[in-house]
Write a structure and sequence with these properties.
CATH architecture of the largest domain: Orthogonal Bundle
Shape: elongated
CATH topology of the largest domain: Rna Polymerase Sigma Factor, Chain: A
CATH class of the largest domain: Mainly Alpha
Number of domains: 2
Number of strands: 0
Radius of gyration: 24 Å
CATH superfamily of the largest domain: RNA polymerase sigma factor, region 2, helix turn helix motif
Structural class: mainly alpha
Mean pLDDT: 82
Number of helices: 9
Strand content: under 5%
Distance between the termini: 77 Å
Order of helices and strands: HHHHHHHHH
């Protein structure tokens, strides 16, 4: 059965499951597309699909909050999608926090092997571990995971100058610690 926008809203308010199925059929494509655009980097297809399913559940649960005088139904659903996807992104990024203790510096060159001994590596890791949580994550993602600064800025919610300053302070601190050998 097909529903007009007003009929669909009315039937969902009445908890009509056929209307809910129609809602999913009609709006999956734009909801998935927006969720994908927000979550596609570093997240699995399952994460995106879970977010989309949660959006439709939220529409079902919050249908009485919809105000046709403020926006149209599609816009309201897409706004819910945006906020749900951003929430997922923050949650998933927090869960992917890397532990510096799991890393060991890989030595590719004989000269590097001679210059960086085990004691220096341990001092380096101790210094990075002494950073505050944000600086530590920033440093690991940039120098151990080789992430782009733009991606780090976006996920941590920092400006370019803030990221650059934090990295500079971290490098200076490491240089100070390593120069006292």
């Amino acid at each position: 059965m097909n529903y007009s926008e007003s009929e669909l809203i009315s039937e969902i308010k009445k908890r009509n499951l056929n209307a809910y199925e129609f809602l999913i059929k009609e709006y999956t494509r734009p909801v998935y597309y927006l969720g994908y655009n927000i979550l596609n980097i570093g997240n699995s297809k399952e994460d995106i699909e879970e977010c989309v399913a949660d959006v439709f559940l939220e529409v079902w649960l919050k249908i009485n909050e919809f105000d046709s005088g403020r926006s149209n139904f599609r816009t309201w659903i897409l706004i819910l999608t945006k906020y749900k996807a951003l929430t997922y992104k923050r949650k998933l990024n927090k869960n992917h926090l890397e532990n510096i203790d799991d890393y060991q510096i890989e030595e590719h060159d004989v000269v590097e092997k001679q210059m960086i001994d085990r004691e220096t590596q341990e001092k380096l890791l101790e210094t990075i571990n002494s950073f505050n949580r944000t600086d530590k994550e920033l440093f690991i993602r940039r120098y151990f995971c080789n992430e782009k600064i733009s991606d780090i800025m976006q996920s941590l919610g920092l400006s370019r100058s803030a990221v650059d300053n934090r990295l500079l302070r971290g490098r200076k601190r490491i240089k100070e610690v390593l120069s006292y050998e």
